[in-house]
Amino acid sequence: MVITKPSLKLTHDGALKALAGAIAKAEELNAPQNISIVDDGGNLLAFVRMDGAKLLSRETSMSKAITAASHRQPTSRLDPANEIKLAIAGGGRLTNLEGGLPIIIAGQCVGAIGVGSGTGAQDVEVARAALAAIGAEDQKP
């Protein structure tokens, strides 16, 4: 009987490298963002609220990251019929808003990024830049 398995872990350095990639894209788009990066258990590893980013988007960026890590898929892919139920069951931490992407390395989810304060499309673009900065897989539609 196997009781353990090898697993990859997103390091603090990896989170900061992803964060830097996201910040660079947000600056390029002139769209200040709140950016949260969590590990595979939803624990915060890195965060920034860029100058000019919307205050309450701090909360949505974290919820997007937690949702993407929890479901191992981009936010906005949850069944819309279950959005409210999931949000309530998750203590308000789950969301179906665009801008949350899992961080997949070698087929394993090692964490997630959540971006909030721009349009949904901008949030996703910034999150994808973070994935590209660390060579993570992108689950494009």
Describe this structure in words.
- By secondary structure, this protein is of the alpha+beta class.
- Helix content is 39%, strand content 19%.
- The chain contains four helices and four strands.
- The protein has a four-stranded antiparallel sheet with strand order 2-1-4-3.
- Strand 3 (100-105) and strand 4 (108-116) form a beta hairpin.
- Helix 1 crosses helix 4.
- The longest helix is centred in the first third of the chain and has 18 residues, at 12-29.
- It starts with 11 loop residues before the first helix and ends in a 7-residue tail after the last helix.
Report mean pLDDT, rounded to a whole number.
Answer: 95
Alpha-beta classification: alpha+beta
Total count of strands: 4
Count of individual helical segments: 4
The fraction of residues assigned to DSSP E strands is 15-25%
Highlighted features:
single chain, 141 residues, alpha+beta, four-stranded antiparallel beta sheet, 4 helices
Secondary-structure topology with pairs:
Blueprint: H1 12-29, E1 34-39, E2 44-49, H2 57-71, H3 83-89, E3 100-105, E4 108-116, H4 120-134
Antiparallel strand pairs: 1-2, 1-4, 3-4
Question: What's the short story on this structure?
Answer:
The protein is 39% helix and 19% strand. It has 4 helices and 4 strands, in the order αββααββα. It has helices at 12-29, 57-71, 83-89, 120-134; strands at residues 34-39, 44-49, 100-105, 108-116.
